[in-house]
Amino acid sequence: MKYILMMSGKKSDFEGYATWSKQDLQANVAFMRAFSKELKDSGVFVSTEGLGWPSEARLVRAGANGEPVTDGVFPESKEFLAGYWIIDVDSPEQAYKIAARASQAPGPGGKPANMPIEVRPVLSGHADLGI
Amino acid sequence: MKYILLMSGTKAGVETYHAWSKQDMEAHMAVLQRINKELTASGEFVTTQGLTEPREAKVVRGEKNGVPVTDGIFPESKEFLLGYWVVDVATPERAYVIAGQISAAPGPGGVPTNMPIEVRQFATYEPKPK
């Protein structure tokens, strides 16, 4: 069963991240690298990606002629996806355990950031939607 | 440049899908599949993934000893990721055009859903202060 683990935050959370000391950032990145390696070594790793900053995000809709209409204004409360992992595990419990590990990535001063990680099964195809 | 096109919605928004007729759903999916095919043909397709319904979502935190603490309660206003496309394109404008095509996919009665698609670049660098 494939699950996606999502890390999100408000623009203000991202801005807080930008104030971390170099040492704290390096410790966080080292943790994330070791975490990905653990996932690969245990055979559950499918993919991982980090996203660019929310300031670069655009919301796009189609105009009347199908041309893209872009907007860069979001509510303060908007949660931006910061990054994700996709894992292939035997049970939801295993997915939650791995998410808990990601949640413990170190923050400022090396303290676990305790970030909430959203966990969802992913669809293996459109058939899962009953179509 | 890799961009991710994110389609999201609230729980209430997602539930409206259940009211779509089979025909409308098939027409919608046919357009999305055509877009995937076109992106594959143009060499811009990287991957696409749909997620299960928001009711299956859990939020997880790790306790001190690493024990996962799960919670399935989210605010009504929460935007859940429904699915995404990753495309490899020459310019951000091209990513916006593709997002516009997805937004124009037909909804009930063949009327474009006009769903907002969030377009973000992938981080190809180490996270660093700006």
Q: What does it look like?
A:
The complex is a heterodimer of chains A (131) and B (130). Chain A is built from 3 helices and 6 strands, in the order E-H-H-E-E-E-E-H-E. With 131 residues, chain A is an alpha+beta fold. Chain A has one domain: Alpha-Beta Plaits, CATH 3.30.70. A 4-stranded antiparallel beta sheet of chain A has the order 2-5-1-6. A two-stranded antiparallel sheet of chain A has the order 3-4. Chain A is flat and about 50 Å long. Chain A starts with a strand and ends in a 10-residue tail after the last strand. The mean pLDDT of chain A is 92. By secondary structure, chain B is of the alpha+beta class. Chain B has a single domain, classed as Dimeric alpha+beta barrel (Alpha-Beta Plaits, 2-Layer Sandwich), CATH 3.30.70.1060. Chain B has 3 helices and 6 strands; from the N terminus they run βααββββαβ. In chain B, the strands form 2 sheets. Chain B has a 4-stranded antiparallel beta sheet. In chain B, strand 3 and strand 4 form a beta hairpin. Chain B is globular, with a radius of gyration of 17 Å. The two termini of chain B are 20 Å apart. Chains A and B meet through strand 1, helix 2, strand 2, strand 3 and strand 4 of A and strand 1, helix 2, strand 2, strand 3 and strand 4 of B.
Which percent bin holds the helix content of chain B? 25-40%
Widest sheet, order of strands of chain B: 2-5-1-6
* Poorly predicted runs of chain B: none
C-alpha termini separation of chain A: 20 Å
Work out the strand percent of chain B: 25-35%
Would you identify the CATH H-level superfamily of chain B? Dimeric alpha+beta barrel
Kindly report the name of the CATH homologous superfamily of chain A. Dimeric alpha+beta barrel
Structural class of chain A: alpha+beta
Spatial shape of chain B? globular
CA radius of gyration of chain B: 17 Å
The CATH topology of chain A, please? Alpha-Beta Plaits
Measured on Cα atoms, how large is the radius of gyration of chain A?
17 Å
Number of helices of chain A: 3
**Number of individual domains of chain B:** 1
